[in-house]
Amino acid sequence: xAGCASTPTLQPPNPSNLLSADGAAxxxxxxxxxxxxxxxxxxxxxxxxVAPGLTATDxxxxxxxxxxxxxxxxxxxxxxxxxxxPSDVAAVCLFLASPAGDAVNGQVYPISADNTMVR
Length: 119
What we know:
By secondary structure, the protein is of the alpha/beta class.
C-alpha cells in the first residue's frame, strides 16, 4: 500500500488574528487530505495528516520558546505535559509508513502536549 501524509501544525481553538492565513492554509490541507483519502482509496493509496503542535526542537529550546519541563515548584512534569520531541513526530510517521498503518486512511494525528489543540 502506498501512502501520503501532510504535516500541518495545529491551531488553538481561538488563534490570534495574526494567524488567520496560517489557520486557513492548515484547514485547506486537512480538507484536501480528506478528499484525497476518499479519492485514492480505490487505488490502495492512503492519505493521512500528521499535525504536530509546537515541537521541542533544539532551536526552540535554545531560544527559550519551550518550557523547561518543570512545574512552578521545580518538579518534573510528565511526558504528556511536555511539548513533543521530533522523535515523537517521527514515530507517528513511521507507524503510518509501516505495515501496521496499512488500514489507516483519512485520519488526522495531532501531536501536542496541549489538549486544547484542535484540527
